[in-house]
Specification:
With 430 residues, the chain is α+β, with helices and mostly antiparallel strands. 36% of the residues lie in helices and 17% in strands. It has a six-stranded mixed sheet with strand order 4-3-2-1-5-6, with helices on both faces. Strands 7-10-11 form a three-stranded antiparallel sheet. Strands 8-9-12 form a three-stranded antiparallel sheet. Helix 5 crosses helix 6, helix 8 packs antiparallel against helix 9 and helix 10 runs antiparallel to helix 11. It starts with a helix and ends with a helix.
């Protein structure tokens, strides 16, 4: 078993203190549509690597022998015929390094032993009402044992205070896995670009995209967006049967996941392989904003600061193209640009597409630190309207990369995925 998980648990124990424990529930097995797949909760993956549903992990500084405990689905040969082999209690110990492991149906029985004398319990209260009820019942039951010198937890702390702060800064193993996700994403986007031909349907492009992920060990990290024509002006477009037409654009927002780590990339392609003059002008504004924002990613900078840089470049470009009129500074202050750019420029990335971790520190925008990974994704979305020049109407453009903060500044993890106007045209032409 990799030592990376053990190192993360030790780091968590240091944050929890000598009377602390963390109870970390995994994701349940959902009865979803056939194209959905189970995705383990990021906290459980980060601390244990255990991939099965209906799991609860416990990391504790209080128990004299068991610092890492897993409650897992037991082996069931009949069920395994349908869902695959389970690790079971033995596998939880032998393959995942648990000091102790129990069937998940023994959680209520075993938990009092592990929560006794814990002072600070880290637990995501409010996420699972039924599990909340059971955990609180255990804590209430410990209250009557205080005469036996067994105290109950005095505080329940949100995971964001300790665990999510650890997850915010990626270690070497996490960055290496993200690079694998990037490689799969690059293959998918290359395959999709070639399919972006007049007459193709959005679902056909999506099929090529996700086939590219799968051929490089990736799976879709989130529902892929393939938006042709004016569909690209809808930020979270969910359709998939639109037709790609000559002279229009196709926006793809999609990333592969490997071992739970997600890549998040957007590229915008000219259908048929040539930008119209108006679309190229819009595209160059977005690309200029993205490159300026990436240059602003450096230790000590903030996500707010990166966003401000992108907005400034976009607004100047909108004025230059005649889509906005007035003084750029005043247009920024009045947020007039939000008609064409209505979302933020960055979010954290890792085991979740919108990864955990606060954007504030001490009530102020948090400074970037080496090891943080964030997206940089400016865009322009020009819906059809009477006051919009036909050359720009109906165009949606977003360019998004994944950026690792380094001691020297930043590394664009997705830099190998072409994005200049000329490169993108060549990709589409194959």
């Amino acid at each position: 078993m990799s030592t990376d998980y053990a190192q993360r648990r030790r780091a968590l124990l240091e944050r929890l203190g000598p009377r602390g424990a963390a109870l970390v529930p995994g994701a349940p097995r959902a009865h979803a549509t056939r194209d959905a797949r189970f995705h383990q909760d990021g906290d459980v993956l980060y601390l244990t690597g255990f991939p099965e549903p209906d799991t609860v992990a416990l990391v504790t500084a209080v128990h004299p022998e068991h610092r890492f405990v897993l409650f897992v689905p037991p082996r069931d040969p009949k069920l395994e015929t349908w869902t695959g082999m389970r690790a079971g209690v033995e596998g939880a110990r032998e393959r995942y390094g648990a000091d102790a492991a129990y069937p998940i149906n023994e959680l209520d029985e075993r938990l009092p032993e592990y929560l006794a004398n814990v002072e600070d319990l880290t637990y995501p209260l409010g996420r699972d009402p039924e599990l909340d009820r059971r955990v609180l019942a255990v804590i209430a039951g410990l209250a009557i044992k205080e005469r036996q010198r067994q105290t109950r937890p005095a505080r329940i702390c949100a995971p964001r205070i300790s665990l999510h702060e650890l997850r915010l800064v990626k270690d070497a193993a996490e960055i290496a896995t993200l690079r694998l996700a990037v490689a799969a994403t690059a293959d998918g986007h290359a395959a999709a670009a070639v399919r972006a031909r007049p007459g193709a349907r959005e679902h056909e492009v999506r099929a090529e995209l996700e086939r590219g992920f799968l051929l490089t060990r990736g799976v879709p990290g989130y529902p892929s967006i393939v938006a042709a024509g004016e569909h690209a002006t809808v930020l979270h477009y969910e359709g998939e049967d639109g037709e790609l037409r000559e002279g229009e654009l196709c926006l793809i927002d999609a990333g592969a996941a490997v071992d739970g780590y997600v890549c998040d990339v957007s590229r915008t392609f000219p259908v048929g392989g040539r930008f119209t003059a108006g679309h190229r002008r819009l595209y160059e504004v977005v690309l200029e904003a993205e490159e300026a924002a990436i240059a602003a990613v450096t230790p000590g900078a903030t996500v707010d600061g990166v966003h401000a840089v992108a907005v400034e470049v976009l607004v100047r470009g909108l004025v230059r193209l005649g889509l906005l009129a007035g003084d750029p500074a005043e247009l920024i202050t009045s947020k007039a640009y939000e008609r064409f750019y209505m979302h933020r420029t960055s979010h954290w990335l890792g085991l979740d597409t919108h990864d955990v971790g606060s954007y504030l520190e001490g009530g102020e925008p948090r400074p970037l630190r080496p090891g943080m990974v964030l997206t940089v994704e400016p865009g322009l979305y020009v819906a059809r309207a009477d006051d919009v020049a036909p050359a720009y109407a109906g165009a949606g453009i977003r360019v998004e990369d994944d950026v690792l903060v380094t001691a020297q500044g930043a590394e664009v993890l997705t830099r190998a995925i072409p994005k200049s106007a000329d490169q993108v045209e060549r990709m589409v032409r194959g």
